[in-house]
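REQUEST FORM: STRUCTURE PREDICTION
Request ID: SP-0412
Submitted by: Lab K.M.
Chain count: 1
Length (residues): 342
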Amino acid sequence: MRSTVLPNTQNKNKSKDPFMIQMGSFVKEFCTPKDDDCHANRIVSKMGKVKVVKDRIYRKRASYLNDFFHTLTHISWIKLLVFYCSCYLLSWTFFATILYAIEPKENEKSYCVTKLKTFWDAFLYSLQTQATIGYGNYTPDPEIECIGTIITIGVQSIAGLVLDSFLCGLLFFKLITPRNRASSVIFTPHAVITRRNGKNYFAFRIADLQKERIVEGRVSVYLFYKHQTKEGEILDFEPYRLLVTPSDSIPLLLPQIMTHEINERSPLNTINQNEFMQKRIEIIVTYEGYSPTSGLPVQARHSYLNEDIIWYHSFKKMIVEKDSNFNADWDAFDTLIPQNIV
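STATUS: Completed
RESULT:
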């Protein structure tokens, strides 16, 4: 097994405020598109994205349409902008077509809407009606009884209000959803199996880089590995929960080392060091809490494969009390120290 101290990878991230480290440059030190680790078979990537491809799902489109609103909140901003513009263009065109169809033609003397002679006149009038612009070029003639035009204008006004409410709500919900907030929660690129008081522990370090910490944060850890039962059944990616300490709400005021004791009740207890490197093992860590700004839930994920877990090492101390303050030495965040195990 490897027993050397990992090289320090954060020297480039020094700043006056240690909590202002950029997450992008931090992860880039360990994983670039050319690295094999970026393309390793993982359930969850190092950046926290789930790498499970949904294939051959029965009634997939129907399932998305049944939850249409939340489906739209997960699309990209470019697609949302295209959808946003398309809704208004379709609405203006639809009602312009109706207005142009029911409007008297050129060979007739009277018009329900003054100066509305072509389809583009109808389109411009439809846009002005729904957007409540009112330039004054196109106005309904009160002396002519045009029931169809009056009903169309009323329906379009109501439909425009409903469409504005839906699209504004969609845009507001997407703006306040703290998806990028999870990027400021960082994990050490390597976990360790460390020895404390004669007991083995699985450990990793986690920190929140923002000044306003996530509230009511909780950490859950699951072990996924392939094994065979006594009856011969092969279990693929069977999840086993690893109880970690501390188990209560974690505010992450300081970088925290999370530990799981490998005892007789631990799923890791049945796997020795040699088997650990041979089996396909993935440990997925999830940190969940609420954003203090929006009050919406935040979820950050990370995963550790076999090669990401270093045996019999410990994390270097990074919190130093100085001048009545606690200083976090971020150079030591991912630095490992080998243990002398006899």
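NOTES: Residues 147-176 form the longest helix (30 residues).
Reviewed by: T.R.
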